[in-house]
Design brief:
Length: 280
């Protein structure tokens, strides 16, 4: 296996790996180490069945069960027993979505930050990709932490952040509704990665809603100030998908976002996640 950096800030590509074949324990531990160190790990040109994707995911941990949205937020019917999620804008014959997260741009966020034990890793496998757009951008939360000005770091030290998902894609969730109706959880602002022992700033513009000890307006100003640092162009790798690409990322050390694409062009990826622990 050969490892090639995808950008200065984040990400590595592995060459010389065929995921559809069994991966021995030594190679598995090398992959896991490179993934933790680089936050995202890409392999191109793979032809994978769902079972092969699950087998690859198990190198990194235990495949996580689906977290169902509250009933009123459900846009399509998914099999709750199948942890494979179809991320697609395709519709069935009656015009109903066949998968989740359909169309359009999505702001930077990290998956399942709003549950007690956020899913540690997410995998996307590209099946069908539009001619232009629909890229996934990744931003390093390690660099975000390292680049926080002292005064901002001081304001956030030891605080918790309320993470909430309101099923919006390009605006923060609505604060004027009962929290009981939404998936939400208070998480530490600064998280120590269990594999690398590096600190990351666990804040995103989309899903971080409130900072402990601050008003709503103060919280939004702090969240935006952090997001401006994390989302700086030099801190980002933008992936232009090709069918057969598979990326696994660490939800504790990076954010991801999606760029827009023409509505009439199909975009389908298969997604699984790995269980995580409560954060410290
Ligand atoms: Fe996501």
């Amino acid at each position: 296996m050969e490892f090639i950096k995808l950008s200065e800030a984040i990400g590595v590509e592995v060459r010389g790996l065929n995921i559809s074949e069994p991966i021995d324990a030594v190679s598995g531990s090398v992959l896991r180490r490179e993934w933790a160190k680089n936050s995202i790990l890409l392999v191109r040109g793979q032809e994978l069945t769902e079972d092969e994707q699950f087998a690859y995911a198990r190198i990194y941990g235990k495949v996580a069960a689906r977290v169902s949205p509250p009933v009123e937020k459900r846009s399509y019917r998914a099999d709750p027993d199948n942890p494979m999620q179809l991320v697609t804008n395709k519709l069935d014959k009656r015009g109903k979505p066949v998968g989740s997260l359909g169309d359009g741009e999505m702001w930077f966020h990290t998956d399942k930050c709003y549950v007690e034990k956020p899913h540690r890793a997410s995998f996307l496998y590209a099946v069908e990709i539009p001619l232009s757009g629909g890229h996934t951008k990744f931003a390093s939360l390690y660099n975000g932490y390292d680049r926080l000005p002292f005064s901002l770091r001081q304001k956030l030290e030891g605080r918790k952040v309320l993470q909430m998902y309101d099923y919006t894609k390009t605006e923060p969730g609505d604060l004027d509704q009962p929290l009981e109706n939404l998936l939400h959880h208070w998480q530490p602002v600064f998280v120590t990665n269990p594999d690398t022992l590096r600190k990351a700033v666990y804040i995103s513009r989309l899903m971080s809603i409130r900072i402990e000890g601050y008003s709503d307006d103060e919280s939004r100003a702090l969240i935006d100030a952090v997001a401006d640092i994390v989302e700086a162009p030099q801190n980002i790798y933008e992936h232009v998908w090709k069918p057969g690409d598979i990326i696994v990322w660490d939800n504790l050390s990076c954010l991801h976002a999606r760029t827009d694409w023409p509505r009439e062009q199909a975009r389908t990826l298969r997604r699984v996640t790995i269980e995580g622990e409560a954060l410290a």
